[in-house]
Amino acid sequence: MSTLSKLFLRIGSPQLHVTSVIILLSVYFAVVLNYPINQRIYELSTEGHLLFKLSPAVLLTGLFLIIFSMFSISIKYVFKPFVTLLLVSSATTMFAMLFYNVMFDYGMIENIFETNTGEAWSYVSLPSVLFVSTLGIFPSLLLLRTRVIRADSILKGVLQRIGLVVIGLALVGVVALFFYKDYASVGRNNHYLNKMINPAHIFNTVKYINNTYLTEPLVYKARGTDAHLAAKKNPKPTLFVLVVGETARAENMAYYGYSRNTNPFTQSLDMISVANVSSCGTATAHSLPCMMSDMNRDNFKRNQANAQDNVLEVLQQAGIEVTWFESDGGDKEVASRITKKEVAISDNNPLCDGLTCFDAVLVEQLSAHIKASAVNDLGSTLQNQFIALHTIGSHGPTYWKRYPKEMEVFTPACNRSDIENCTDEEIVNVYDNTIHYTDYILSQVVSILKQYESEYQVAMLYVSDHGESLGENGLYLHGTPYAIAPSQQTHVPWLMWLPESYTEAKMLDRKCIVEQASKGEHSHANLFHTLLGLYGVETHLRNSQLDISHGCKVI
Q: What are 363-403's pLDDT values in tens digits?
């Protein structure tokens, strides 16, 4: 018999009046499960203001008294199951907030719902299981075993709840009376605080479910029907590869001034690095559809993006054969109307572990696809192609699973998922190994393209969806609300391999492109228009001001 079982046998089935249960739950949620926000307000408070520093627990207790009192009346028979859900999920979010400084706003909930099994399992570790078991599962089991004694009559029960609501209002009123100005000041300067309240993630979850599953999607409207290929010097078809990076930050790339040479494999390929690139979001679920659309970070709406042509579909409208290869757990609907090929994750493949694969598997797929296309077109005209590779790149926290052991060059590395138990040096080392391996992958893509230079005009573009925090200011991973996200999560690399033969065929001045890429500010908003410009697609949707190659046309 397990220790936990013995403990519950000793406890037996306690009896508590419903008002006592509500009070205990309110205090537990306010003091324990909301420790992160209590701690943050304590840190933000001025010296010598002890009462204000301690007031958040009182304020939250009052609010939870009101919520739980009203909730226990309205849905009596699902009270325990629902509170159990709140306890376990709140313990989980608390762990993420405490150890990674992750906040569960709408964007993070969207990212969680759209993750895959392999990615989800990467966050499971012994410390996280013990934490959630202690603060979430154990209290839930205790609640489920407790026999809740209710009032003798409905009227008496209602009066008891009203009494608790009055007490809750009184607590909120007292805090507001003495500390309103303090909360107004702290809240005005730290808008993210409301996102730290547990269980606010339930509200965002309901909102996501409503928007995604219960709201009628907008009707798709083709917008790129006028897209066509512009005239070019060379009659050879075009073979363009877009490599979508995952969780790569510009700060750790040698191309952007990093002290380590994390780009040894491509340094001789005359790559063009685009300077000062800001991501559309801090998580894939938001960034990927945004960067493929013609919207920017300020006006992006996922439902609208899903209902209109993204850059892949505009290219397809121009008669180009567009193919998306997926190895990062999901295309976030950007490839829903083009040819999509999912990488088969098999234990039999030495490049896979049953949950994820090394990005070398995409190189294999790319090579096989181009070879098959050449065979199929034998005796006929080769087709213009645009191929997108969605890599798993530097996705954490299981960074060490993103590259083969023989590609580990920076040591000691954090070869475990509970990165909070690694040193900063180990975390940076293991992350840099992923960047180093991504550079190897890019060099292999270029190597394949070079094999087909006699048949195609070949080029490659690499850009990451968002960055990553590696412990700077106590932040880890990604997904921080954009308004407060550090540059490590929003500054991303954008590299282009554009041979002179390619730019000449497209009647572009390569030196001009290098110059345009090196100056000013750029963002994911440039991607849609630059891809069209580099490929030579003309359409009313292309905004020349956002096309990096604009102004580099050779007439």
A: 999 999 999 987 766 556 789 999 999 999 999 999 999 99
Q: What is the pLDDT of residues 306-333, one digit of tens each?
A: 999 999 999 999 999 999 999 998 999 9
Biggest distance spanned by C-alpha atoms of the chain: 89
For tokens 């994750």, the residue is 345
Report the DSSP beta bridge partners of residue 497.
460
Q: What is the pTM of this model?
A: 0.88
Nearest to 241 by CA among 308, 314, 317, 325: 325
- Please give the full DSSP string across 460-521, using - where no structure is assigned: EEEEES---EESGGG-EES---GGG--HHHHB--EEEE--HHHHHHTTB-HHHHHHHHHSS-
Residue 493 to residues 161, 306, 371, 435: CA-CA distances in angstroms? 56, 25, 29, 11
Q: Which of 120, 136, 95, 154 is nearest to 395 (CA)?
A: 120
Pairing mode of beta strands 494-497, 272-273: antiparallel
Q: Phi, psi (5° rounding) for residue 519? A: -125, 155
* Angle (deg, nearest 10), helices 284-292 and 106-113: 90
What are the E-state strand segments in 268-348?
272-273, 277-278, 321-326, 339-342
**For tokens 């410009």, what's the residue?**
533
pLDDT in tens, 238-270: 999 999 999 999 999 999 999 999 999 999 999
